[in-house]
């Protein structure tokens, strides 16, 4: 049984008599300790799937299960202790008036977890930030450092699953590689399961064991890392994504 099971998921937004379907009948399964990628152009629905898992988007059809159990509505503390999300923009996702210490200790306070000082210091070590950064504010950090804080915050409750929504797209190329290597190391050390969104197949190829290609809210094709590496796509859309990504990598 997969750790994450999504069956026929649909997400429709309704407002003022109008409706827009962002995800339509998508199914996927992610095994424990696997890294699974969602890839597609902007507006393909990939980020909406992560938001639906977290309860941030309306599930209008289908089911989401974690460890065989239907996710509750609202999600609640037990869900938060098991599943955490890292967002695309590390500056927008951190409170500008909170120090790193407050940002990292807040999840522990909400869940009644002690040893705050030790766990905050360990979290900074885990993501490669000096402990002297503890009382800095987000504006005093680089973009890559802010994303490391966001990753540390997501790991404070020691979850099993990380949902990663374009976690490096707002970063410079050199910092992207450092962040991806950090995530891979943490997944290995902690036995984490990743469900990751990206529009960049090079990133997905570096990070993910399996890939689901999405277009216009629908699943188009599922690929293994080996399929992607050898360009064994079955659909024209997946081939066009691969070709575009390859062209970007060749640009000076």
Describe this structure in words.
Helix content is 38%, strand content 27%. The termini are far apart. The protein is built from 9 helices and 10 strands. It has one domain: 3-Layer(aba) Sandwich (Rossmann fold). It has helices at residues 46-54, 76-82, 100-110, 116-126, 143-155, 173-190, 201-207, 225-229, 236-250; strands spanning 4-15, 18-30, 35-39, 59-66, 69-70, 83-86, 161-165, 193-198, 210-215, 218-224. The protein has 252 residues and is α/β, with parallel strands linked by helices. The chain has a 6-stranded mixed beta sheet, sandwiched between helices. The chain is globular, with a radius of gyration of 18 Å.
Features:
alpha/beta; Rossmann fold; six-stranded mixed sheet; 252 residues
Give a short summary of the structure.
The protein is an alpha/beta fold. The protein has helices at residues 46-54, 76-82, 100-110, 116-126, 143-155, 173-190, 201-207, 225-229, 236-250, and strands at 4-15, 18-30, 35-39, 59-66, 69-70, 83-86, 161-165, 193-198, 210-215, 218-224.
């Amino acid at each position: 049984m997969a750790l994450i099971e999504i069956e026929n998921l649909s997400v429709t937004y309704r407002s003022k008599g109008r409706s827009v379907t962002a995800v339509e009948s998508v199914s996927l399964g992610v095994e424990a300790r696997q890294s699974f990628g969602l890839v597609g152009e902007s507006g393909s629905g990939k980020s909406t799937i992560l938001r639906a898992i977290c309860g941030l988007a309306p599930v209008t059809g289908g089911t989401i299960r974690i460890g065989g159990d239907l996710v509750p509505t609202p999600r609640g503390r037990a869900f938060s202790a098991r599943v955490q999300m890292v967002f695309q923009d590390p500056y927008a996702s951190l409170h500008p008036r909170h120090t790193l210490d407050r940002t990292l200790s807040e999840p522990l306070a909400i869940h009644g977890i002690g040893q705050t000082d030790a766990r905050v210091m360990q979290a900074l070590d885990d993501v490669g930030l000096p402990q002297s950064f503890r009382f800095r504010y987000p504006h005093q950090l680089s973009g890559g450092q802010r994303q490391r804080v966001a990753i540390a915050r997501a790991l404070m409750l020691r979850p099993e699953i990380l949902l990663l929504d374009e976690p490096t797209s707002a970063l410079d190329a050199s910092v992207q590689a450092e962040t991806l290597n950090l995530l891979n190391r943490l997944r290995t050390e902690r036995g984490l399961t990743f469900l990751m969104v990206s529009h960049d197949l090079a990133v997905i190829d570096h990070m993910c064991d399996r890939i689901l290609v999405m277009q216009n809210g629908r699943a188009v094709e599922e690929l293994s890392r080996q399929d992607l590496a050898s360009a064994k796509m079955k659909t024209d859309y997946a081939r066009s994504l691969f070709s575009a990504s390859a062209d970007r990598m060749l640009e000076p």
